[in-house]
């Protein structure tokens, strides 16, 4: 479906993200591209699942430390805001001697575990509704195979006509690189002006799609991990909603 109207004085015209065609046209949104973490499900559930897997792994290596105790210490450091050295801090507290090799093994256990996460019912119903009227796609940063294992655990692969794992293009193509977005437009043969990107993280999610001319939408889940804003021009999403259930109504207004 491809609908274009010549309507330079239409009130929606001013809401459109800049694109070469927006001076003469505005286009209906035909394609919706989603971010994964903290957009389709709460990422903190994945973190909880990952730390549980690491706890099991470590308790096998160090059988004096029961997994429940390891998990409690890991979770304490994580929820206190430690995002870069959780394992080191927890091992220190547990009096488990560690070296970089052990840390790497735990990081690997975290990234390769089969996650216990489920798709929220609200997300399921939004995807089911939008699939009837839009082409859906996914673009996600992050380490492989973690991202693929998340997609499989959530059971969402069949919802999308295309999925871009930016890691497969190379680390330098993680957001805010435009490469993954450009690849999606080529793959789906759709114009940026007809496409929306739905994400959560103002630091990196919306810069490239804003510059390419996508309509950008931020979902502000209360439990999201990345709550920081950005001063960069073009970093903010054009539209903001507080739950994914509001997305279909917003798309109808655009
Ligand atoms: Mg995200």
Task: Briefly characterize the structure.
The protein is an alpha/beta fold. It has two domains: 174 residues, Rossmann fold; 69 residues. Helices cover 39% and strands 13% of the residues.
List keywords for this structure.
single chain; binds magnesium ion; alpha/beta; 2 domains; two-stranded antiparallel ribbon; 10 helices
Describe this structure in words.
By secondary structure, the protein is an alpha/beta fold. The chain folds into two domains: 4-41 and 118-253, HAD superfamily/HAD-like (Rossmann fold); 44-112. It has helices at 43-61, 67-79, 86-93, 100-112, 121-131, 146-154, 166-169, 179-188, 207-212, 247-253, and strands at residues 4-6, 25-27, 31-34, 135-140, 162-165, 195-199, 215-219, 239-241. The strands form two sheets. It has a six-stranded parallel β-sheet with strand order 5-4-3-6-7-8, sandwiched between helices. Helix 9 links the parallel strand 6 (195-199) and strand 7 (215-219). 36% of the residues are buried. The chain binds magnesium ion (MG).
